[in-house]
Specification:
Chain lengths: ~260, ~290
């Protein structure tokens, strides 16, 4: 009755109404930002008096936007490689191993996800200042990998737990050595989990602000840090243009992920 | 099935021994990274909270006694509680809708939720900064509709923080609620109807109690996440009503007061972990109840 859409009666329309309002609430800021990025008014008048590409031109003419984007990309790619590599190895240990304290280790890997990011950020800030990693790409990559790792490990562990190890054993029985069996049987079988881990790790690093704010130096910053700095000065439409490009990027990633999921099914 | 038993009989004991040693070495690289770049720095920060400026608990004493810090933590609790309440009230019907909508519409609504969740946090916060301005679209629309005469102050205060945080937290409550509501057997509601329960009775006595574990777990998670948020409160909030994360950042980055900053960070950390443990227990009980 209550869980059957067609037998809800009038209540159905109440729920649908709330659904439409919430969908509008969720989409409003996104659509608004896209509209503003093409608007001619510097004072963010809406609806804008005319349409222009001026803010995008400003964006691409400013080396700080380009540099910070490149730093972000570089960092996110390295974080993805490290997280998936370390996560894959660790997941094999967690799912298949039986060493003492395994559950404790598993819980510890998830810790960075539970902790308030500000605490991690401040702790790393102090530590990296002391050992000279503050304001370096290595510092960014290490810090982001620590918070991307829990997501990567969760995704890969899930895939590995669903995979029947007997298939890998069968390959070994058929003459493959253990490495070959893992490489040619197990890894292709859990590719969806690996891909999920890669997307999560990439987006975690790409979108991360709090740690990056503390890690950045005047000469090296990621895109979110640059947006943050710009926003603290004024609400220029250039930020709307940058946000729109970020949105397109996220959409593209989501579509690739959906396509990939469709293909592996 | 036969191949499984052959493998297990054939390679049983030696394999188990290899597994025991091999497992840990696989975990080791990630563990070392975690210890060096996470555990050690956090412990060093805690150490500073009891050693700077002098050995002792004076930082914690000040944290408890000072009215300024008290107000920051009060603000944090207040905003987190209000955000949690609003997200539960809005999120519940949405989760319900997602469970019962025909596939195509449910997928569309899911897509919108996921898209907003993955849109860059700063981009979303920027949008709210612009929307909520004195001359922003929201104020203009309200004046245009004749609902208000003077523009409302919607940013640089806790109202702005609450709106921005609600927006960001909404997906985080909807998704766990959907999981809980999917687990509810529709037959139970059919049975309630057969026994003569009306819609209201069936909701109040069957659907709501059965989704309560999801509400509790999701609500607690929203509350915990709100407590530690930094970006949205510092962009949408004002200087006079700081939240905990901003206080920590300011103590350390601007005031260079490592002792106090460490103490505030530790307080936030303990609070978060305690609430998280509670949430884990609620969630386990919810799962046990279902099984």
């Amino acid at each position: 009755m209550l869980l059957d859409f067609h037998r809800l009666g009038g209540l159905k329309w109440v729920l649908v109404g709330i659904g439409l309002c919430v969908a509008a609430f969720l989409l409003l800021p996104i659509l608004f930002t896209v509209a503003l990025s093409f608007g001619s008014s510097q004072w963010l008048v809406f609806p804008p008096p005319a349409w222009t590409l001026r803010w995008y031109e400003e964006l691409f003419a400013d080396p700080r936007w380009i540099d910070s984007t490149l730093t972000s990309l570089q960092c996110a790619v390295l974080v993805t490689i490290l997280s998936v590599g370390l996560g894959l190895l660790a997941s094999f240990g967690l799912v298949r191993g039986s060493f003492p304290g395994r559950e404790a280790v598993r819980a510890m890997f998830l810790m960075p996800m539970i902790m308030p990011v500000i605490v991690v950020a401040v702790a790393l800030y102090a530590f990296f200042l002391r050992i000279g990693l503050g304001g370096t790409l290595v510092g960014f990559v290490l810090a982001h990998t620590v918070i991307a790792l829990p997501l990567a490990i969760t995704s890969i562990c899930n895939a590995l737990e669903r995979f029947d190890k007997a298939i890998e054993d069968a390959a070994i029985l058929c003459g493959a050595n253990p490495w070959e069996a893992k490489l040619r049987i197990t890894i292709p079988a859990i590719r969806e989990g690996l891909f999920g881990a890669a997307v999560f790790a990439f987006l975690t690093s790409w979108d991360e602000v709090v740690i990056a704010i503390f890690m950045a130096s005047p000469t090296l910053q990621t895109l979110p840090v640059h947006i943050w700095g710009t926003l603290r000065q004024d609400l220029t439409p250039v930020v709307a243009a940058a946000s729109t490009l970020l949105l397109l990027f996220t959409l593209a990633l989501m579509l690739v992920a959906a396509w990939f999921r469709g293909r592996t099914k | 099935m036969t191949s499984v038993s052959i493998v297990e009989r054939g390679g049983g004991p030696p394999q188990r021994r290899r597994r025991g040693g091999g497992g840990f070495s696989h975990v080791l690289p990630a563990l070392v990274l975690l210890l060096l770049v996470f555990v050690l720095p956090v412990l060093l920060l805690l150490l500073r909270s009891v050693t700077e400026p002098a050995l002792g608990l004076q930082n914690y004493a000040e944290l408890v006694e000072s009215a300024t810090y008290g107000r920051v933590f009060l603000n944090t609790f207040l905003v987190s509680a209000v955000v949690t309440a609003i997200t539960v009230v809005i999120g519940y019907p949405i989760a319900w809708l997602l469970v019962i909508l025909p596939r195509r519409w449910a997928d569309l609504l899911f897509g919108i939720i996921i898209l907003s969740m993955w849109t860059n946090l700063l981009a979303r916060t920027y949008a709210w900064m612009v929307l909520l301005q004195r001359t922003g679209v929201i104020n203009k629309t309200l004046i245009g509709l004749g609902i208000i005469d003077e523009p409302l102050t919607l940013v640089n205060n806790l109202v702005g923080v609450t709106i921005g945080m609600t927006y960001i937290m909404l997906p985080f409550i909807i998704l766990p609620l959907v999981t809980t509501m999917r687990g509810i057997e529709p037959d139970l509601l059919r049975a309630a109807a057969l026994c003569g329960a009306g819609r209201l009775d069936a909701f109040r006595r069957v659907l709501l109690p059965l989704s309560l574990p999801g509400i509790a777990a999701g609500g607690l998670m929203t509350f915990v996440m709100s407590l530690g948020y930094f970006v949205t409160p510092s962009l949408l909030g004002g200087t006079s009503n700081m939240m905990a994360a901003e206080l920590i950042a300011q103590l350390i980055q601007s005031l260079l007061n490592w002792g106090m900053g460490g103490a505030a960070a530790f307080a936030l950390l303990v609070l978060t972990l305690a609430l998280y443990a509670l949430q884990l227990r609620l969630f386990r009980r919810a799962q046990a109840g279902r099984a």
